[in-house]
Amino acid sequence: MTTNIREFHIAVIPGDGIGVEIMDACLDVLQAVEAKTGGFRLRPEKLEAGANCYRDTGEDMSAEAFAKAGEADAILLGAIGDPAIRYPDGTEISPHLRLRTAYNLIAGLRPIKTYPSIPTPLGDPRAADIDFVIVRESTEGLFASVGKGTVEDDRRATETLVITRDVCEPLFDMTFALARSRKTKGKSGHVTCVDKANVFSAMAFFRKIFDERAATATDIEINHLYVDAAALNMVRNPWDFDVIVTENMYGDILSDLGAGIVGSMGLAPCAEIGETHGLFQPAHGSAPDIAGTGKANPTAMFLSAAMMLEWLGDQHGVDECKNAADRLDRAVDRTFAEGGLLPCEFGGTDGTAAIAEAVIGNLD
């Protein structure tokens, strides 16, 4: 009897700086979890993109590589950028922003979670229970102006914030679906809309659409916060949040704050998803200051890969992928719960190789 094994083409973009190191470790971890689980096969294809690509070729990503990323079943990205390499207008290299727009990756899911034995800057014992998700709109908002801003006579610069119903309606529906899924796993299923509707008409429009879609999701409890109050409460009582949905720039800032309250950007994964495409990457940057030292924490890369496996399983009805995602998440939890491993950013000595080895060893 022949068993059909579902094969997935994964566009792998290591990028720049520590992106290359954590991606190599991630591919080793994925190979191990694939072998442990069975029932699916990943076929990675490495593509060049980022600051080094721009430096060497004059393009941040070739048209061929860009098209291949779109043809893949999923995109797995390490980290992109280098402050020393910039576009002529002074901004950093960012082809991943074009990937978001071209492939309609409207929802950036940024889980914020504490891990055992990892110190956090919050002294309250309830910090051990932090577990929420920021849903960042990823294609418009203030980022709609990327590459379109103007500087007039070296005296006046403008960027334009854009909010559209076509993006917000599916974004909010995806947010409520996420809250509903979390509710089945014992979470509150509570959604907070974060905006600045008291000042900006675009943000009032954002809130209006949120409330309209919330009226169709009566099983989900909702509330609203202005972004400044949300930032305050993310430090004061982050354990009260479950799902936050917000505009692109606000989500960019709040997700870094979230990573800070759980201890490190090295623990911050990200899934950027649309109806048919998904891109998965750690929320941190390329950290050129530690590139090549072996100190980079690959945990966020591994967790992003787990989100990719879960998404592939949901998209294609492959339970083995979802089982592999759960297995990888458990391995990360177990690795830190044991207490014998401490990443370099927390004052420990465990870098990329040690963490990858521990996670592979903890796969059940």
Keywords:
Isopropylmalate Dehydrogenase; 18% strand; alpha/beta; 364 residues; ten-stranded mixed beta sheet; 2 domains; 41% helix; 11 helices; 12 strands; two-stranded antiparallel sheet; single chain
Report on this structure.
- It is a single chain.
- With 364 residues, the chain is α/β, with parallel strands linked by helices.
- It has two domains: 1-104 and 275-364, Isopropylmalate Dehydrogenase; 120-149 and 159-262, Isopropylmalate Dehydrogenase.
- The protein is built from eleven helices and twelve strands.
- A ten-stranded mixed beta sheet has the order 2-1-3-12-11-4-5-10-8-9, with helices on both faces.
Q: How much of the sequence is in beta strands?
A: 15-25%
| Portion in helices | 40-55%
Could you name the CATH homologous superfamily of the largest domain? Answer: Isopropylmalate Dehydrogenase
Task: Give the C-alpha Rg.
Answer: 20 Å
Distance between the termini: 27 Å
CATH topology of the largest domain: Isopropylmalate Dehydrogenase
State mean pLDDT (0 to 100 scale): 96
Number of helices, counting only DSSP H or I runs of 4 residues or more:
11
Shape from CA axes? Answer: globular
- β-strand number: 12
**Which oligomerization state do the chains in this entry correspond to?**
single chain
Strand-pairing-aware structural class: alpha/beta
Whole-number tally of structural domains: 2
